[in-house]
Amino acid sequence: xxxxxxxxxxxxxxxxxxxxxxxxxxxxxxxxxxxxxxxxxxxxxxxxxx
Length: 50
Prior knowledge:
The chain is mainly α. The chain has a domain at 20-50. It contains three helices and no strands. One of its GO terms (biological process) is DNA-templated transcription initiation. Residues 13-50 form the RNA polymerase sigma factor 70 region 4 type domain. Keywords: Sigma factor, Transcription, Transcription regulation. InterPro entries: RNA_pol_sigma70_r4_t2, RNA_pol_sigma_r3/r4-like, WH-like_DNA-bd_sf. One of its GO terms (molecular function) is DNA binding.
């Protein structure tokens, strides 16, 4: 990928993230970028996995 393609991809990601609710955005980032599993995610959010 060249720099222009990465910039376009970054802009697209930002636009999609901006459309999410703050809670959904946080969940997505915790799973996708921080690599949390279902158990880890539930613990961070203070909820049961179910």
